[in-house]
Amino acid sequence: xxxxxxxxxxxxxxxxxxxxxPGPYLMQGDEACAEGAIAAGCNYYAGYPITPASEIMExxxxxxxxxxxxxxxxxxxxxxxxxxxxxxxxxGARAMTATSGPGFSLxxxxxAYAIMTETPLVIVDVQRAGPSTGQATRPSxxxxxxxxxxxxxxxxxxxxxxxxxxxxxxxxxxxxNLAERFRVPVIVLADEGIGHLRExxxxxxxxxxxxxxxxxGAAPFVAEASGAMDAVPPMPAFGDGERLMVTGSTHDxxxxxxxxxxDAQAALVDHLTRKVSEHRDEYARVERLxxxxxxxxxxxxxxxxxxxxxxxxxxxxxxxxxxxxxxLRLCTLWPFDDDAIRAAxxxxxxxxxxxxxxxxxxxEVQRHAPxxxxxxxxxxxxxxxxxxLAVARKW
Amino acid sequence: xxPQDSGAVDDSGMEQPAPGTRAxxxxxxxxxxxxxxxxxxxYICVSVCPRDVLAIxxxxxxxxxxxxxxxxxxxxxxxxxxxxxxxxLAIEVLSEA
Amino acid sequence: MQTAGSNASIKRMVRTESFPTPFCPGCGHGILMGAILxxxxxxxxxxxxxxxxxxxxxxxWIPSPHYAADTLxxxxxxxxxxxxxxxxxxxxxxxxxxxxDGDIASIGGNHLIHGARRNIDLTVICANNGVYGMTGxxxxxxxxxxxxxxxxxxxxxxxxxxxxxxxxxxxARYVARQSVFHIRQLIRVIETALQHPGFSFVExxxxxxVQYGRRNALTTPVAMLSELKERCVPLTRARTMTREQLAGKxxxxxFIK
Lengths: 395, 97, 257
Fold this sequence. Notes:
Chain A is α/β, with parallel strands linked by helices and 395 residues long. Chain A is built from 13 helices and 17 strands. Chain A folds into 2 domains: 12-211, Thiamin diphosphate (ThDP)-binding fold, Pyr/PP domains (Rossmann fold); 288-394, Rossmann fold (3-Layer(aba) Sandwich). In chain A, the strands form 4 sheets. Chain A has a 7-stranded mixed sheet, with helices on both faces. In chain A, strands 12-14-13-16-17 form a 5-stranded mixed sheet, with helices on both faces. Chain A has a two-stranded antiparallel ribbon with strand order 1-10. In chain A, helix 1 packs across helix 2, helix 1 packs parallel to helix 7 and helix 10 crosses helix 13 (385-394). Mean pLDDT of chain B is 83; it is low at 1-9. Chain B has a two-stranded antiparallel sheet with strand order 1-2. By secondary structure, chain B is α+β, with helices and mostly antiparallel strands. Chain B has a single domain, classed as Alpha-Beta Plaits (2-Layer Sandwich), CATH 3.30.70.20. Chain B contains 2 helices and 6 strands, in the order E-E-E-H-E-E-H-E. Chain C has helices spanning 7-10, 28-43, 79-89, 101-107, 109-118, 163-170, 183-195, 221-231, 235-238, 243-246; strands at 50-54, 70-73, 94-100, 123-128, 174-179, 200-205, 232-234, 250-256. Chain C is of the alpha/beta class and 257 residues long. Chain C is 34% helix and 17% strand. Chain C has one domain (20-231): Thiamin diphosphate (ThDP)-binding fold, Pyr/PP domains (Rossmann fold). The chains are: A alpha/beta (395), B alpha+beta (97), C alpha/beta (257). Chain A binds chain C through residues 1, 3-4, 6, 43-44, 46, 71, 73, 75-77, 79-80, 83-93, 95, 109-110, 113, 237-239, 241-249, 255-257, and chain C through 18, 47-49, 51, 53, 64-65, 68-75, 78, 81-93, 110-111, 114, 118.
């Protein structure tokens, strides 16, 4: 395993040259995700083989050899992978791991630890058909709820859902930036369909990055002043001379354990939620396709990831037949974009949610539009435009 | 201290240096301090002291145990067994060396 | 100028506001807590160069919150994994992992053998008291056969690991066992382990009077230390003893260096 040299760590927003030469590339989705991590300055990667995410790790293993100051480690299991990612992040690294459903489940305890300690990191989950070993080489979108709630207890987390190889590149970069900005784990929730397809990815000349803020002597957790529970505290690194106390137990702003005080627990849970939820404008992202924001629709499709590709084709077909159909594509899946969904569903006669699970996003949409229906494919095959059209036309 | 230097044996059982000489490796403490806030009354220090310096004061009570007291400071040779085996860093044998 | 390794000297290496410690009276982990600091003090190392990574359980509380240094108190069994990430990314950190026998060798067993195999430049100190103390005294993989615990009320039916042999086989470059009764030898092997390049492992036998001793006819801390004194046999002497003579004994010393 290679070791990293001490690199300069710019704080806040800054722009660097793209690592790859600008221009068009034909990339597999997993490969594009790895290149996005490299472009985002990822300098610690630890992982464990699992279909259909292994290609991400293999690509990083090859590429890191030629890039100074970047560390790659294949660990003994997924638990050690994410554990070492947290350790590296606290040593100052921009760190990532990638996995699929069963590995994602194994990572949940240490994911909770990362949330509790406000550790920036990126986890890529390339979903496959489950439960359990399931069909390793087949797509699904079954981890929607697990990505949001799998760590247990109360917090807010950011989950991005790319729908193309190009977004595997750009959304992985966005994941790193959001992780550093909010000191929170960010999940890139892809699926085997997106991970394994090959598409054109256009690389620009520059990449815009956000680096975590550090301040000597500042309390590294929660928020020191009351009323600033939505603020993100600065994050020093081990070896800075700060004598950090990092713990997964409930703690005060300095890191002292407070495992019997109700006010400390209340403050921590409040902070872990509000530091993300009160900055919606910085991470919320939807794409409106074939529709204007204020348009009254006969059929609103709400979808994400691989399913959105088929939903887009179905919406195009319906439009060509004269139906006022549009697609609201969720790019940031969690925190759930209640504002965008409420507004769009209010202007639609019918709402249809295509997804490759039995209705995990549908449940969220139904909070705003109880009459919304799902188009659900759970046989390990990619959902098709015809699947969606069949439901839309029967209604 | 060599056998040739030894003089009379005193009532502590230790050989004392001959008049006009002094023991080579004999150290004395400036002060032995027991931190009553940190001591938990496990009595390991009393047990591992080879010179009966420390004792349990059976006549006193801290609220949870009989406290440890420095009974014979003059017998201490600064071996620091008590310090090394105290789980609470609750005893300090302060010396010049 | 305080004598290196004395309590007056190592007191500056702890967060005094976290004392008195939560350890029980006579806890062997408390003795080990001091021993590690004394070793660092003898070496003249700066606490600002150190990173202490610890797991869950009483052993995990040895450095966190007591040591005035960077401390990382992680999930149960995983300190070696977290430490690996920190060390690989910043090799300038002097990384020490501290955990109990349950944390390091039960739930953490996989990370122990792979850490040793990879020869990551870490020092792992296992505070072995043969019991899960913090959760009330359940059996662990190092509990002596026949011992009574909360989950083996009729006596432990299983044989325990020889942790040092396990770690030697996994590829560690320095492996030693000592007891907190043999405190000067323990401090010396910790000093050697800290300085030794690659994966170093020290198993420290630390009595647990409340959750182990009380249920196994060793009712005081002093009684537990006396029992350790009787049970430990130095490696050099053990090599001349028969299997019958070694029954019930534990071998202390440096197994690989």
